[in-house]
Amino acid sequence: MFIESPKAVVTKSKEETFNFLNDLSNFEKLMPENIDKFEVLSENRFLFSLKGMPEIVLEKKEELPYSKLVLGAASDKLPFTLASEIKGIDENKTEVVLHFSGEFNAMMAMMIKSPITNFMNTLSANLEKI
Question: From what superkingdom does this record's organism come (predicted)?
Answer without folding.
Answer: Bacteria
